[in-house]
Amino acid sequence: MVLLENNSIKLRALEPEDLDVLYRWENESDLWGYGTTLAPYSKFALREYISESRHDIFQSRQLRLMVILKENNMPIGTIDLYDFDPMNLRAGVGILLDSRYRRKGFGAQVLNLLKKYAFDFLLLKQLYAYVPKSNTDSMKLFINCGYQQTGCLNQWLKCKDCFEDVNVLQLINS
């Protein structure tokens, strides 16, 4: 059984040649509001991150995988497991797809591949995601992939002129 690929995409570890595309994605300021980034990343910092990413998820408590379009071996996004908790068998999920590849079905494929890996290989009990209320595309994606909204963190993210609620979504391995 191949856990990290299907007919059109594969998930793989970070490689040094991913530096330029990661630099572009991590420095898209329009996306900073969906995570915890407050400032641009330098190429030096990203190079260090890539070199340290070979550590085991049990050691680093996180895992970032590149999403590769198999037809041309092109990176089209990333998927993260973060806050990995081996005691309680759970991890957070974060996904980023290059804007040219959104709304084409790749997001669901990526989440489903990650689910198989997390549940069948890492033997996790649950995955969760925090999605800003205004990110309706991401909400729809997670819901369509079986996640359930189980809570709301009121006024959780500071926006330009306000605070935004964040939805908590969970996928339980039953």
In words, what does this structure look like?
With 174 residues, the chain is of the alpha+beta class. The chain has five helices and seven strands. The protein has helices at residues 19-26, 43-52, 57-60, 106-121, 136-144, and strands at residues 9-13, 63-69, 74-85, 90-97, 126-132, 148-158, 163-172. A seven-stranded mixed sheet has the order 1-2-3-4-5-7-6. It is globular and about 40 Å long. The two termini are 21 Å apart.
Give the gist of this structure:
The protein is an alpha+beta fold and 174 residues long.
Q: What is the percentage of strand-forming residues?
A: 25-35%
State the distance separating the first and last CA atoms. 21 Å
Radius of gyration: 16 Å
The coarse overall form would be globular
Number of helices: 5
List keywords for this structure.
174 residues; alpha+beta; seven-stranded mixed sheet; 5 helices; 27% helix
